[in-house]
Amino acid sequence: MRVIVVSDYAMVNGGAGKVALESARALAEVCEKVTVFTSIGEPAAFLLDHENLEVVSLGQQKVTDQSYFKSALGGLWNKDAAAKFAQVLDDHDPKDTVIHIHSWRDGLTLSFMPEVFRRGFKFVFTVHDYGLACPLAGFYNHRTKSICHLKGGSEMCVRTPCTTGSWVKRNWFIARFYLQVNRAKIPAKLKHLIVIGPTTEKVLKPYLPPETKIHFVPNFVDVDQGPRVEVEKNSTYAFVGRYSPEKDPLTAARATHVAGVPMMFIGTGPLVDEIMAVNPNANMMGWRKPAEVKEILQSVRALIFPSVWYEGQPLVIDEAAAMGIPVIISDVSAATDAVDRFHHGLVFEAGNIDSLVRRLKECAHDDVVKSLSEAGYRNYWMNPITMELHVAKLMQVYDKVLSD
To answer: Are 194 and 109 part of one and the same domain?
Structure first.
């Protein structure tokens, strides 16, 4: 079997890129040939050391980093990507090749899909966000700072201002979405879709054709098994992520200040000053490397994940379970999927400071956090989401895609 992995980035720049590229490297161990097709950046070193893996990168910039003229045209429909992808397909046979698409919105666009259809290649998408259904990929209104429940691409969607940026830029996103729907025929011709959790499936299902087959393949978790963190001996709570409105660190800051518990923030973003204003005692740790974050988390009592939008699969919640760290999460994000699986967390009403304070008071009891810690650690390591498991599930999906 041959696999073409499609990803905007040739290097790891975030969760979707990490999953796409690291799984491609692992797939090279079990497939005849893996080709990674990208548009942005230089290939990561770990992609260049396997004889069964080839990287085809256009060496372009992210759409929003290009000049206005280039992004206004090429960012809508990347003709260079379409032409180069056609050359890649010349070296593949539709009978034994699966095209696995992870990301396309930052550079590639879906300009290559008409050629995929014309030649009869089988393909599958993994959804890391909601770009198949929402022009801005998040179902989040940045003005009201709340989840958007409008139908993506509908007249009301187009008429409703949902960004804090310019009207021109927002309409550019909508134009690109219409090209995706009407010219690339996605999701209308989508036969196979990989979801990373029940939340993504629930949100996207109304937009899919009835015949679309949905496959659940959780993203792998990059963590080694060590001793359970004895959280009952710790007192500090932590937020890990970007300091931005949709992540809602301000609710975490206010609630921990009201509850009088120590709080640390690990990450970076535009709300640093606001966080300090509402919680002057907060420990602002700044951005840290993944290994540093795991070391810091050894000293926390619980993670607070107050996101007010859907999210995809927040891997920090799975990593917390693997370490035995309880989580306190909002009731609207996909983090609830992991808590349902591992039983290592408490849920509060998104944006509600009083609701979060009540959960913090529950976690003041050592027996409560110890019970959550033990449950998460035990349930995660009963069936850890390793790269091997991830690849095995991908191969099962590829077999179904080819035989369909």
So the answer is: yes
Query: Are residue 238 and residue 98 in the same domain, yes or no?
Result: no
Identify each DSSP E strand in 235-384 by its residue range: 236-240, 263-266, 283-286, 300-305, 327-330, 345-348
State residue 355's pLDDT score.
98
Our measurement of the distance from residue 351's CA atom to the centroid of its chain's CA atoms, rounded to an integer in Å, reads 21
Cα distance between residue 342 and residue 373, in whole Å: 10
CATH of the domain at 297: 3.40.50.2000
Residues 337 and 399 in one domain: no
CA distance 92 to 345: 47
Full residue range of the structural domain in which residue 76 is found: 2-220+386-403
Q: Comparing C-alpha atoms, which of 155, 214, 207, 172 is closest to residue 186?
A: 207
pLDDT at 168: 84
Is there a contact between 185 and 113 (Cβ–Cβ < 8 Å)? yes
pLDDT average per 10 residues of sequence, the chain (404 residues): 97 90 97 97 94 95 73 82 97 97 95 97 96 96 95 96 87 94 97 95 96 95 94 98 96 98 97 97 95 96 97 92 98 95 98 98 98 98 94 98 94
The pLDDT of residue 42: 93
C-alpha–C-alpha distance, residues 325 and 339, integer Å: 12
Give the pTM: 0.93
pLDDT at position 207 is: 97
The reply to whether 178 falls in a domain is yes
Asked if 368 and 343 count as a contact pair (C-beta separation under 8 A), the reply is: no
Nearest-10 Cα torsion for 60, 63, 67, 69: 110
Across 94-122, b (16+ Cβ under 10 Å) vs e yields eeebbbbbbbbbbbbbbbbbeebeeeebb
* CB 97 within 8 Å of CB 119: no
Distances (CA, A) of 265 to 105, 228, 288, 355: 30, 22, 11, 20
The amino acid sitting at 346 is L
